[in-house]
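user: can you give me the structure for this one chain? tokens are fine.
assistant: on it. calling the predictor now.
[tool input]
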Amino acid sequence: MEAVNDGVVPAEKAGRSTAITFLTAAGLPASQATDVVERVAERRATVTG
């Protein structure tokens, strides 16, 4: 998050990585966490696009 705060990484890019990290820390396997985040991003694009 420091990279976002410092303006080095855009929040949109960091958001996915942060979500995957959170989900894996909660016990979800990385492949499933990635799938979940991708599905949410797709739905969000459909709703806001």
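assistant: here you go. Helices lie at 2-5, 11-25, 30-48. The CA atoms of residues 4 and 12 lie 9 Å apart.
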